[in-house]
């Protein structure tokens, strides 16, 4: 069955960096568009970034553009989110999703605080 497992979250100070990973299994990872979403307490879920199946084209939310980089390694069935210059407003649970199949990972908590 389809499984998406996120990792790499944690507590980081403002201005710091984290890299999230999403390990995928149960489907042909290399043929699907993948996305990162986040949800902060009391707020609606937000699309953070999307990457095409071959990895060459990515789109970002305005709030993270220039600070976050989405990438994927199709040989490892893994997607990444490199997050730099983190801000307190980036605090959220981050989840990966294979959009066309509608499957979500369980999420990883990112907390940006001094």
Query: What level of helicity do the residues show?
Result: under 10%
State the secondary-structure class.
Answer: mainly beta
Q: Sketch the major β-sheet.
A: 7 strands, mixed
Radius of gyration: 13 Å
Mean pLDDT: 96
Number of helices: 0
Q: Judging from the principal axes of the Cα atoms, what is the shape?
A: globular
Report the count of strand segments. 11
- Give the uncertain stretches in residue-range form: none
The percentage of residues in β strands lies in: over 45%
Distance between the termini: 40 Å
Description of the molecule:
This protein has 114 residues and is mainly beta. It has strands at 3-7, 10-12, 18-25, 34-39, 46-51, 58-60, 68-73, 78-83, 92-98, 103-104, 108-112. The strands form two sheets. Strands 2, 4, 5, 6, 9, 10 and 11 form a seven-stranded mixed β-sheet that branches. It has a four-stranded antiparallel β-sheet with strand order 1-3-8-7, with no helix packed on it. A hairpin with a 6-residue loop joins strand 4 and strand 5. The radius of gyration is 13 Å and the shape is globular. It starts with a strand and ends with a strand.
Defining traits:
4-stranded antiparallel β-sheet, about 110 residues, single chain, mainly beta, 11 strands, 7-stranded mixed β-sheet
